[in-house]
Amino acid sequence: MPTSLSARLSAELAGLRESGLLIHPRVLDAANRARTRVDGREVVNLASNNYLGFADHPVLKAKAAAYLEEWGAGAGAVRTIAGTLRIHEDFEEQLAEFKHTGSALVLQSGFTTNQGVLGTLLKEGDLVVSDELNHASIIDGLRLTKATKKVYRHADPDDLERLLRENDTDGLKLVVTDGVFSMDGDVAPLDRLVEVARRYGAVTYVDDAHGSGVLGEAGRGTVHHFGMAEAEDVLQVGTLSKAWGVVGGYAAGHADLKQLMLNRARPYLFSTAQPPAVVGALSAALELVQSDPSFMERLWDNTRFFKSELARLGFDTMGSETPITPVIFGEAEAAFEASRRLFAEGIFAVGLGFPTVPRGKARIRNIVTAEHTRDDLEQALAAYARVGRALGTIS
What we know:
Layout: H1 5-18, E1 35-38, E2 41-45, H2 58-71, H3 79-83, H4 86-99, E3 103-107, H5 110-121, E4 127-131, H6 136-143, E5 148-152, H7 157-166, E6 173-178, H8 190-199, E7 203-207, H9 222-225, E8 234-239, E9 249-253, H10 257-264, H11 266-269, H12 276-291, H13 294-313, E10 324-330, H14 332-344, E11 347-348, E12 351-352, E13 362-367, H15 374-390
Helix pairs in contact: 2-12, 4-12, 5-6, 7-8, 13-15
């Protein structure tokens, strides 16, 4: 007898519940800012990716409103039929100029960007070598291709070189890495990875979701941080959420990349174009970060303070180099309990366990932003001290 939909749903949910992995997301009752309301409680927010505080910034909202009024609520079609508005083209030119690349193409999300670019570039007979801790969107994007796939040890140029040496091909060779790794907060050793890739004629593909708006001059990203902005053998993709505060994804690189993508990338070809208000807000975000360096200055001042104080208290932050600051609690239940206790003290910080992170490395992932005040961070640190001591994580 076939399995019914009801039985399948019930069994899957029961399995998640029994393993302690069933998610019940908390609900924000106000805009996503450094201080907000979650499930009716006023909290300091350490859970969002809103690095520069742009998600509710009045400059972004004003330009979004202006584009909404002039261009309408939606684009009305996929871009290859009747959905490419002049503002889409203008923003892609603005983005390519910001990234110092030959072209840029905007897609609906960072996730679909990886599916679109990898699916477009890679063919049977090609070789792709991917960092073992790359984002799920890269993993899923690679599953859609017929290229030979190999995985190198995390941030290890020597293991990358071994795999490139052992798996030669006449096809395209692609080395794929996150720029900033979203769970540990470390930065890929891009200078060394590109050096290895070039020795074997490989192109380097950088997913800079957590590096854009955070690293490099004016937040241009990890590739700029390492001085490789105009290299044609380095391809950048990423999200237009996180630091940019809105939504979407982008691919930036070789001058011909955009033209191939708009002819072949399935997420681009079969999805309605971004709404005008989104384009307006994104355009304002790029203008704002370049005209006012204080956003990135505050982000990094807050990051340094928060990390140093957590270390002084005795917490393990895994040597994170970026505003992503994990605090290790060991087993998943300890991290979840710490998250519950922090929330009771007015701190919104989410616990993460297996399979999101390895067993024994359950943590709370904190992200400080440019919008946090010193009072916000001191309140969070005081709560961390009390919760950490109560659970025996620190003495």
